[in-house]
Amino acid sequence: MVKDIIIDIVGNFADGKTTLVKAITSESTLRHSEEKKRGITIRLGYAHFNLYKCNSCGSFSRYNKCELCGSKGDLY
After folding, report:
1. Which molecular-function annotations from GO does this UniProt entry contain (predicted)?
2. Higher pLDDT residue, 38 or 3?
3. Which end of the chain has fewer CB atoms within 10 angstroms, the N or the C?
């Protein structure tokens, strides 16, 4: 069963929230044309990503192959 996990990122102006989300998900939250032009967040942003759990060691990864032991993981 796939679980929905919601992660909120909160901070002050220019703390790197958008940069952090892009680093975690590889997806930009800047979607509005004015945001892209000016390089700032104007509207609420969001991003989706998949999380996999290793069948052997139980660790979590963004990829279905475990980065620690090399085993296959299932969508968490």
Report:
1. GTP binding; tRNA binding
2. 38
3. N
